[in-house]
Amino acid sequence: MQQASKILYLELSCCVGIYMDLQCPPIVIFVLAWYDIASSNGCLSAKDMSPGSEDEGALPTYREAFPPLPEKAASPDGTQEPANAWTKIRPIKSSMITQVFHVPLEERKYKDMNQFGEGDQAKICVDIMYKTGAHLELSMAKDQGLSIMVSGKLEEVMRARKEIVSRLQTQASATVAIPKEHHRFVIGKNGEKLQELELKTATKIQIPRPDDTSNQIKISGTKEGIEKAKHEILLISAEQDKRAVERVTVEKVYHPFITGPFNKVVSDMMQETGARINVPPPSVNKTEIVITGEKEQVAQAVILIKKIYEEKKKNVTTIAVEVKKSQHKYVIGPKGNSLHEILEKTGVSVEIPPTDSSSETVILRGEPDRLGQALTEVYAKANSYTVASVSAPSWLHRFIIGKKGQNLAKITQQMPKVHIEFTEGEDKITLEGPTKDMQQVQSQMEAIVVDLVSRMDYTEITVDPKFHRHLIGKGGANINRIKDQYKVSVRIPPDNEKSNLIRIEGDPQGVIEAKQELLSRMENERTKDMIIEHRLHRTIIGQKGEKIKEVRDKFPEVIINFPDPTQKSDIVQFRGPRTEVEKCTKFMQKMVAEMVENSFSVSVPVFKQFHKNIIGKGGANIKKIREETNTKIDLPAENSNSEVIVITGKKANCEAARNRVLAIQKELANIIEMEVSISSKLHNSLIGSKGRFVRSIMEECGGVHIHFPTEGSGIDTVTIRGPAEDVDKAKQQLLSLAEEKGGANIRKVRDNTGARIIFPTAEDKDQELITVVGTEESVRDAQKELEGLIKSLENIVEDFMIVDPKHHRHFVSRRGQVLREIAEEYGGVMVSFPRTGTQSDKVTLKGAKDCVEAAKKRMAEIIEDLENIVEDFMIVDPKHHRHFVSRRGQVLREIAEEYGGVMVSFPRTGTQSDKVTLKGAKDCVEAAKKRMAEIIEDLDAQVTIECVIPQKFHRSIMGPKGSRIQQITRDHNVQIKFPDREDPQATPVPPEPAVQENGEVSGEPKEPADPAAPKKCDVIVLSGRKDRCEAAVEALKALVPVSITVDVSYDLHRYIIGQKGSGIRKMMDEYEVNIQVPAPELQSDTISITGLAANLDRAKAGLLERVKELQADQEDRALRSFKLTISVDPKYHPKIIGRKGAVITQIRTEHDVNIQFPDKNDDNQDQITITGYERNAEAARDSILQIVGELEEMVSEDITLDHRVHARIIGGRGKGIRKIMDEFKVDLRFPQSGAADPNCVTVTGRPENVDEAIDHLLNLEEEYMGDVGDDESPTYMKPRGGTAADEPRGPSKGFVVRDAPWTAGPSDQAPDMSSSEEFPSFGSHVAPKSSSPWGPKRF
Question: GO CC terms for this protein (predicted)?
Answer without folding.
Answer: cytoplasm; high-density lipoprotein particle; nucleus
